[in-house]
Write a structure and sequence with these properties.
Structural class: alpha/beta
Number of strands: 11
Bound molecules: NADP nicotinamide-adenine-dinucleotide phosphate
Largest sheet: 7 strands, parallel
Order of helices and strands: EHEHEHEHEHEHEHEHHHEEEHHHHHH
Shape: globular
Radius of gyration: 20 Å
Strand order of the largest sheet: 4-3-2-1-5-6-7
């Protein structure tokens, strides 16, 4: 039996992962499930999957979780240290699907125990790519991509020589406001930004798709994960979101990966890798789809893509600054303290004014550096937001 842990089990990716595992429950031994606020959902799934351990991120919800698990054999725990314990408990395959940099430490704990880490939590790779990859190497652990674009690249690279790659194209739907006149963008509401045209996802990644911060994170993630040079990574708008990425080789071939808007494909690929097994995803009917469109993104509409280039050029702790500033600016947007387009200016101001607390190369980047940088960048965002008000 494959021992499985799901970090972020109550979220969109976590639920899709549980859907796949639940279809063949006797093949899996569920070690741990973690969640945040959704105690009823966490307890329901932990009982149904006969998990050993259920963890909520919030200390104050431990009593609720214990009550919801009463009468079952599932052990309950709460708080950041317990999340890391969930990652550290021996498992073969760990889904990293907590949202935000909160997923970094539990993901590292999973790598330290030598698990295969299925990585949906792109924030941890953006904030601490060299540390994640080093930890995986030192512990004979493996990271498999779950973001649909990175899964697509991974699949298009299979059996190929990565040295023969000369370009990679990551596609983007353009998010909720792709066709909105630029002058109206500043006034959009949180509710409008939380509606993705193609995918059903958690609220934060949905808003990040509208601002294109999500795509900016993905470009950096591709750089960190595969080691491509920044100028090899392109982004194309593709409103249908059916081609997830394309890998271009030096002989001119472009290998495209197509699939429906269903994260169970990328999750299932990582779950079954290196095998391919049947998955409950719809087969694409290309004749019915008829047309696929591609266009160059407008950097005036999506400044986050320009900032991602800067982050890739600077490297070091700039990924941690960028991610933290983006997460905190998003908190302020959701709370109604800044407008949608103001997020770009806030992140750029913090990024350009930041002096990272280390001077060495990527090999010297530690968790302590990342944690301090994350904290300082969030405080800088708060200061910038106070100043503009
Ligand atoms: N959704 C997608 O299709 C998709 C695609 C590609 C990549 N991703 C990436 O996958 C990750 C998860 O996305 P999602 O859409 O599944 O998000 P989501 O639906 O918002 O779920 C987030 C999960 O993290 C938990 N959580 C929230 N704050 C936490 C904290 N501070 N500490 C620990 N756990 C916390 C949530 O618990 P509660 O809900 O119980 O509070 C939930 O289990 C993100 O990194 C995202 O970028 C998502």
């Amino acid at each position: 039996m494959k021992r499985i842990t799901i970090l972020g089990a109550t979220g969109s990716i976590g639920q899709n992962t549980l859907d796949l595992i639940g279809r063949d429950q006797q093949a899996y031994d569920v070690v741990a499930l973690t969640g945040g606020q959704n105690i009823a959902g966490l307890a329901r799934d932990a009982k149904a999957m006969r998990a050993d351990f259920a963890v909520t991120a919030h200390d104050e919800l431990l009593g609720d979780l214990r009550a919801a698990l009463a009468g079952s054999d599932v052990e309950a725990a709460a708080g950041p240290a317990a999340l890391c314990e969930a990652g550290a408990r021996p498992a073969d395959w760990v889904m990293s699907a907590i949202v935000g940099v909160a997923g970094l430490k539990p993901g590292l704990a999973a790598l330290e125990q030598g698990a295969t880490l299925a990585l949906a939590n792109k924030e941890s790779l953006v904030a601490a790519g060299p540390l994640m990859l080093r930890t995986a190497r030192q512990n004979n652990a493996r990271i498999l991509p779950v973001d649909s674009e990175h899964s697509a690249i991974f699949q298009a690279l299979t059996g190929e020589d990565i040295a023969a790659v000369n370009r990679v194209i990551i596609t983007a739907s353009g998010g909720a406001f792709r066709d909105l006149p630029l002058e109206n963008l500043a006034d959009v509401t949180v509710e409008q930004a939380s509606n993705h045209p193609n995918w059903t996802m958690g609220q934060r990644i949905t808003i990040d798709s509208a601002s294109m911060f999500n795509k900016a994170l993905e470009v950096i993630e591709a750089r960190e994960f595969f080691g491509f040079e920044p100028d090899q990574i392109e982004v194309l708008l593709h409103p249908q979101s059916l081609i997830h990425a394309l890998v271009g080789y030096r002989d001119g071939a472009l290998m495209a990966h197509a699939g429906p808007h269903d994260m169970r494909h990328a999750i299932g690929y990582a779950l079954n890798w290196p095998e391919r097994r049947e998955l409950p995803v719809e087969a694409l009917d290309l004749a019915a789809i008829g047309t696929l469109n591609f266009e160059t993104p407008d950097l005036q509409r999506y400044p986050a893509l320009r900032l991602a280039r800067e982050v890739m050029r600077l490297r070091g702790l700039n990924g941690a600054v960028f991610n933290a500033a983006k997460e905190r600016a998003l908190d302020h947007f959701i709370a109604g303290r800044i407008g949608f387009t103001a997020m770009n200016g806030v992140v750029e101001t913090v990024l350009s004014g930041f002096t990272p607390p280390m001077t060495g190369g990527d090999d010297e980047l530690t968790l302590d550096h990342v944690t301090k940088t994350d904290h300082l960048a969030r405080m800088s965002v708060d200061q910038v937001v106070r100043d503009v008000k």
